[in-house]
Each structure stands twice: as C-alpha cells, then as structure tokens.
Amino acid sequence: MEAYSFEFFPEEHFYLFKTRYEVRYAIRFKPSFYVLDAEPAIADNVYELVIARIEKPEGPIPPDERILYTIAAIAEDFFKKEQNIAIYVCDDSDGRGKARKRKFDGWFVYLNFEGRGYMKIDQGFHEADGFSYSASLIFKSENRLKIQIITALDELADRYNQPK
Fold it and tell me: Which of 17-21, 57-61, 82-86, 153-157 has the lowest mean pLDDT?
C-alpha cells in the first residue's frame, strides 16, 4: 500500500501529512538526550517519537491503513542516520496505554521492521502511586552501540522501578 506524501521540517524534527479524510498528523522526533543516562554517542541520538493527530473533521473517521504505511515511511526517513534511536512511550494517562502498546507492537510486526533491519526493545516503568506505562526503543540492528543501548534502557528501568 502507498504512503501519504509528507513534509519534513528538519529544524523542528517533525513531519506533517494529511489523509484522504482530511485528518492531519504531526510525527515528531523530539530530542531526548536526557532519557538514557548514557555516553554522548548514545544520549545525543535519542529522540522521543510522538504521533499526534492535530486536526480532524467532525464526525467518525473510517479506518485508514495508509496512516500506518506513512508512519513507516517517515520512520525509514528518520533512520537514514543509523545512530538514531527512537523511544516511544505508551502514555496511560487516559487509560489507553495498553491499547497504544498493542497497536504499536502490531505495526512493528505487520510492517516487518525486524526483517528490515530494526530492533525494538520494550521496558515497563512503574510509579509509586501505581501508575505504570511502557516504552519501546527502536534502532537499526547494525547500530554498533546496540549492547550499550539495551544496557542503558535496562539500567534506567532498574533505577526507576526500585521500591519507593
């Protein structure tokens, strides 16, 4: 299936596209060097992946599989720089975090990202008040720092998930 055309705004690290149903999305890769307590070669290449619907018409919107292919094309563009690392946090503030995680995991499998040279590492985080969420790191399989990347995520989870 064909992706929608999209625009890239390099100074802001984001992409924009509009669907045939007049829904506009912004896909942002927010610099997030502070997320992993890691050496600069890793930390300086960490970006939080934010998928935001920024405009939609009134009423129900039919399912649109081209959105999935567009996000995949945007990811391919982002990962042209092989050192880039994307972190996707499944926000659960509205109780829909598990659904977001299932959808994101399904996209990764459906689009065969692993077979196309990507790794996805998942980790869960738990707040003292019982709130929890998951995060996924995605990076190119041939990233020479992959062991250090995985270790940095595991160490972050160990520190974060300690009894409070």
Answer: 153-157
Q: What is the pTM of this model?
A: 0.85
Q: Domain for residue 29, yes or no?
A: yes
The DSSP bridge partners found for residue 8 are: 15
Q: Which domain holds residue 115?
A: 7-160
2 domain-assigned: no
Strand partners of residue 46: 85
Count of structural domains, the chain: 1
61 contacts: CB under 8 Å, gap ≥ 6:
21, 23
Is residue 88 within 8 Å of 138, Cβ to Cβ? yes
SS3 per-residue string spanning 16-41: EEECCCCCEEEEEEEECCCCCCCCHH
**147 has pLDDT over 60:** yes
Cα–chain-centroid distance for residue 70?
A: 14
Please give the average per-residue pLDDT across 103-125, as a whole number: 83
Query: Are the CB atoms for 125 and 135 separated by under 8 Å?
Result: yes
> At a CB cut-off of 8 Å and minimum separation 6, what does 86 contact?
29, 47, 48, 49, 75, 78, 79, 137, 138, 139
Share the mean pLDDT of the chain: 87
